[in-house]
Amino acid sequence: MNKSLRKAVIAGNWKMNKTPSETTALINEMKPLVANADCDVVVCVPYVDLQAALDATKGSNIKVGAENCHWGKSGAFTGEISTQMLTEMGVEYVIIGHSERRTYFGETNVTVQKRVRAALDAGLKVILCVGEYLEQREQGVTFEVVSEQTKIALGGVSKDELKNIIIAYEPVWAIGTGKTATAEQANEVNHAIREVIAKLYDKAAADAFVVQYGGSMNAGNADELLAQEDVDGGLIGGASLKAKDFSEIVKAASK
C-alpha cells in the first residue's frame, strides 16, 4: 500500500453464504472489531441479505455492497437485479465480473462492461474483478488477459468516473483453492493494472486508483500482501465469513 496516494479498501465477498439472521449476527460481531479501521470496510452480501446488512451496519463504518447487478433498468431478466433496486435500498457498492460469474454463469468482458456502465450511471461504486486461469498463467499471458479485461470493462468510463471504481486482481487459480499468489506475484500484476490505467488516463489517475488483491487473502498472509506497494487492500472470500479473521485483515490494512 502507498497510503500517501490512496486509501486501502477491504471488502468481504460473502458469495452464497449466510441467511438474513446470520448476516445480522456476523455484522454485529464485526462492528466493534473494525470500528477504528484506518481503511474503508465493505461487506458484499447475497441479495436476500442486503436489507439485514443495511440495518445492521447503520451508524457504523461498514459499507454494504451487492455481488452483481444487471445492466437493464427493468424487463424480462428472470433472476436478475437492477442497479436502481440496489440504490433505492441504500446499497453503495457492487462487485462486477467476479471469476465465478465468468466461469459458471457466462459473464463475458462485454457484459461486464455493460454492468459497469449501468452501475456508474446509477451512482454505485464498482469493485471490478479481473484475473487469469492457471493455464493462462502457465502460458505466460497473464498480463495480456488482465489488460484486455481491464480495457474492455473501462470502455466509455471517464477519468472523473474512475474514482468510483476499484479493481480487484483475483488469479482464478488462487480462489477457494488454498493457493495464494506470492506477494511479489500479486504486486507485479497489480502494478501492471496500474500501468494500464496510466495509459488509458494518466499517471495521476493511476496513482490515485485502488487495486485490491483477491486471491485467498487471509489473516495469515494479509500483512505480507498489503506491504506491497501496489496492493491497496483485498477482496476477501472465506475469511470474510469469520469476524475475527476479517478484522485481522482490516487491522493489517490499517497499519
Describe the structure.
With 255 residues, the protein is of the alpha/beta class. The chain has a single domain (9-253), classed as Aldolase class I (TIM Barrel), CATH 3.20.20.70. 42% of the residues lie in helices and 15% in strands. It is built from 11 helices and 8 strands. The protein has an 8-stranded parallel beta sheet with strand order 7-6-5-4-3-2-1-8. Helix 1 (20-34) packs parallel to helix 11 (243-253). The protein starts with 8 loop residues before the first strand and ends with a helix.
What is this entry, summarized?
42% of the residues lie in helices and 15% in strands. The chain is of the alpha/beta class.
Summary keywords:
single chain; 255 residues; alpha/beta; TIM Barrel; 8-stranded parallel β-sheet; 8 strands; globular
Structural class of the helices, strands and pairings?
Answer: alpha/beta
Q: Label the overall shape.
A: globular
Q: What's the SSE pattern?
A: EHEHEHEHHEHHEHHEHEH
- Total DSSP helices: 11
CATH top level label: Alpha Beta
Question: How large a portion of the residues is in β-strands, by DSSP E?
Answer: 5-15%
CATH architecture classification name: Alpha-Beta Barrel
**CATH topology group:** TIM Barrel
Oligomer: single chain
If you average the pLDDT, what whole number results?
A: 96
Gyration radius, in Å? 17 Å
Largest sheet: 8 strands, parallel
Biggest sheet, spatial arrangement of strands: 7-6-5-4-3-2-1-8
The number of strands is 8
The low-confidence runs, each spanning 5 or more residues with pLDDT under 50, are none
In whole angstroms, the N-to-C terminal distance is: 10 Å
| Total tally of structural domains | 1
- In helices, the fraction of residues equals 40-55%
The CATH homology group name: Aldolase class I
